Fold this protein.
Amino acid sequence: MIDLAKRRESMMKRLDALDVKLHEIEDELESHNTRDWEEAAVEREGDEVLEGMGVSGQQEIRMIKAALERMDAGEYGYCVKCGDAISEDRLEVLPCTPFCRKCAT
């Protein structure tokens, strides 16, 4: 049996951590203003990595929020495609997944 309260708490903690991380990334991206072109090139490479991390974090936030909405609707733990129950093992590994193993492949 899935402990929804525990799962919700875990997701909320992850949302908080992602929010902090995304603000750190934003602050770092805004802090660059070097005039040296070599340093600027190195900073730009680092910025591309940070931007990728930001996009990934935003995607994870969307997935967590969607999972929380499914919890509120009483639909968490069921595949959004076929309606079958998602195994507890799968939800342990991928707590935000909207798909059962069969539909995910």
